[in-house]
Amino acid sequence: MNREQALEIVKQQMHEKRYIHTIGVMETAIELAKIYGVDEKKAEMAAIFHDYAKCRPIQEMESVIKQEGLPKDLLQYNKELWHAPVGAYLVEKEVGITDSEILQAITYHTSGHERMTMLDKVIYVADYIEPSRKFPGVELARELAQEDINKALLFALKRTIQFLMEKDQTIYPLTFQTYNAVIKEEITE
């Protein structure tokens, strides 16, 4: 599947603002893939499909989680997390993408996980810093991403955790585990 075909598929799944975001994530992911020696085609495809389920009805995502063997604990946490693992499942079933690295990057682009690959990090960070993102600190995050993907990832994780705490929202345990793993990696380097 080429870029144009993939973009046409996702365009049918989302509204215009989400599609523009997806283009930004794709462009950013390709740029980061070049810097960090990641397969650019995999980064491109993971970025294009990262929000494949974002605009699906909550009831549909809940049903997929319950019926298709996805982690049931997701249901106890913020619904904003759901589209990532549900999206990976649907991308495999509906689009036919079976590459485990691409599917993993889609699955964990909202929460992270303890053993993130460089592709996982590229997609997580690209989603956080893509050009249409406007929030205090995004420019610093963009600079960090150019210099050290782990520092950018740590910055994004900290900010995400702080944001959720300030809003009195639950935080998925995997996000804390990711933060701890990145901190440990930074300490040992």
Automatic annotation (TrEMBL):
One of its GO terms (molecular function) is bis(5'-nucleosyl)-tetraphosphatase (symmetrical) activity. It catalyses: P(1),P(4)-bis(5'-adenosyl) tetraphosphate + H2O = 2 ADP + 2 H(+). It holds the Pfam family HD. Coiled coil: none annotated. Keywords: Hydrolase, Iron, Metal-binding, Nucleotide-binding. Its EC number is 3.6.1.41. Signal peptide: none annotated. It comes from the Bacteria. Residues 18-132 form the HD domain. This is bis(5'-nucleosyl)-tetraphosphatase (symmetrical). The lineage of its organism: Bacteria, Bacillati, Bacillota, Bacilli, Bacillales.
